[in-house]
Amino acid sequence: MTARTEAIQQIAQSHCPHLSLTSEIDSIYGCDVFSLEVLQKRLPKPVFKALKATINKGELLDSSIADTVACVMKDWAIAKGATHYTHWFQPMTGLTAEKHDAFLSTTGEGRMINEFSGKMLICGEPDASSFPSGGIRSTFEARGYTAWDPTVPAFVIGTTLHIPTLFYSYSGEALDRKIPLLRSISALSRQALRILRLFGNEKATFVKPNVGPEQEYFLVDRRLAVLRPDIMLAGRTLTGTPPAKGQEMEDHYFGSIPERVLAFMQDVEHALFRLGIPAKTRHNEVAPGQFELAPIYEDANAAVDHNMIMMNLLHQIAPKHDFVCLLHEKPFAGVNGSGKHNNWSISDSEGNNLLDPGSTPLDNAQFLVFLAAVLRAVHKHSAVLRLGTVGAGNDHRLGANEAPPAIISVYLGDMLTDVLDTIMNGVKHAPGRTSMEIGVSLLPPLPVDLSDRNRTSPFAFTGNKFEFRAVGSSQSISPVNIALNTAMACALDDIATELETAVAGGVALNTALQELLPRLFREHQAVVFNGNGYSSDWPEEAARRGLPNLSTTVEALEHYSSPEVMEVFLRQNVLTEREMLARQEILLDSYAKSVSIEGALLLDMVRTRILPAALGEQTRLADTVLKTRSALGEAEAEEAHLAQLREHTSALFVTQKSLEKALDSQRVEKDVHNMAHIARDVVLPAMTACREHCDALERMVSAAAWPLPSYAELLWLH
Ligand code: ADP
Ligand code: MG
């Protein structure tokens, strides 16, 4: 029996776990979070007040209160069973990082005591030499620094207190994905407040983005997955033929959830609830073996942290249910990949959603200004938004007729498009309504949760929020939100400057708007596209409209250093020029490396598994041909089969050699730009050529002798 057939037998014999009841949400929700409520109960009043002021201002902790906060935090965590603490951060690897230290100090007499000072809470100094810095951190200053971000709470997982931190270099430059996110949130707030003040709102103290990410993932049986080095090391299959039954029947989407999967989901939710992460929705996705988990939206900083924790927990909890969780954007060729819809809106400190049309003429005029800013942000800064979705995995998805294309356009729906037309053309709107004078008449009520949802648009308005659909399932949502906030801040900045100048010159706001809004809508209407984003005409139409189509990561990343993109980040103080160039280098390097790792993996699989299986089959077949011929006098069919098998085996010998050469040519390259170009233009095509013959051989070699679990087994055994 082969390892593969043994695994299948084990799966067939295994029992489903009992489903637990989640009636205890009330009592466990947030129980492992060092929340403001916990702090208020435990801190002396003046210290709590000072901490709260720090948090509201979005500043770092004052050292004068740090010792008290640290002591309270330590006692709380130890009571929860924690023995260690870690400064938890989000380096440019795209993952989260943690180094655990025990709450431990020794006294002179050889005894040990629990210790955790304010200094340890505020700042950590992990050796950062192994984290990507894009040249920012020279080797003589290998230290990176971590500083507590008190605007999101610390939490306990297992026996470790996790303190969310920023990660920066000796010279104060961002080495992570949190610092620019926080800067982009302040930029958005600063610029949006200028608009609110123009509309006479003196009450709002800040504006913040809200984010609800919908996380897609695949579950594969662990006993099968371990037999595939590609799944274990690259998170996706590098060979494999489509199963006879894929997603054609469309019977998986929203289908009943298999019990074993449901038990896994409940375990994940339980862990999320304990951490105060509002997991809300779970369902089967389009592809067999594909599922989705979505929380209720939160402010962007918390939503990013929580999505990182969610991805970690999905990975960690899956093996307990004998699953492996795949977050890769394209684990299986020919089957839908996974994305992450980033639902995004902005609200003021009073909780008003600024993307909600509202019910008074003034509210509507304000909504139209924010809408115009969104269109301007997406139209003018489309390359910035595209940068939020770069990655080797996502390249397999974007523009492949299953995910929104790499052309970033906006879907507004018929009703809102109609409103825009009216404003641009100054014509009468729907019958029974007066002419569309901004700030005087009301917008028609827009249904939230529009029924005519356009699933093919990368950026769709859904009633009171925009849904950005081009993010990959494995990616941090930090970059896309940095991009959205910063592009939006730029657009609001332009609009606010123009309106402020007009008002200062004695023009009434309403008059200024009557002139500005139609002009802006006309200037940016090219970015509105309500049609089918998957159609083959759209790229041509988009080109006519002048919309960029940055179809690969390499192309998109080249724009990082373009003057237009730089200007956006520099003007809003989100990234410095050095930080941007560093990020470009890190992302190109990471792209090139992930492609070369996959190339090497495929080469290894071909040599140690696929070719031996094909050659074994060839020998068996040759033997059959001989025996058949001597018994029956002819063996035409067997010979034809053998010839075909041999053709693909020989071709595989040739193509694997080309792949090896491609990898060698990449290895000697020093410049990251060139490395990335070779990855895209030489290594990936060489992999495709190899794969073609692997897949042909899989269709010919006897199932019992094929060493790798098939797509059908991976996708359907749950
Ligand atoms: P779907 O798009 O799959 O139908 P929903 O519309 O119910 O799903 O919501 C998807 C996500 O959008 C959820 O995480 C939800 O909390 C979030 N969401 C809802 N309203 C807002 C908002 N105003 N701002 C940001 N996210 C929101
Ligand atoms: Mg959605």
Count, helices: 23
The tally of domains stands at: 3
Can you tell me the CATH superfamily of the largest domain? Glutamine synthetase/guanido kinase, catalytic domain
Which range does the strand content fall in? 5-15%
End-to-end distance, in Å? 22 Å
Spans where pLDDT lies below 50 across 5 or more residues: 431-436
Percent helix, as a range, is: 40-55%
CATH fold label of the largest domain: Creatine Kinase, Chain A, domain 2
What's the CATH class of the largest domain, please? Alpha Beta
Helix/strand structural class? alpha+beta
Biggest sheet descriptor: 9 strands, mixed
What ligand species are in this complex? adenosine-5'-diphosphate, magnesium ion
- Please state the overall shape, judged from the principal axes of the Cα atoms: globular
Roughly what is the average pLDDT, rounded to an integer? 91
CATH architecture tag of the largest domain:
2-Layer Sandwich
Tally the beta strands: 18
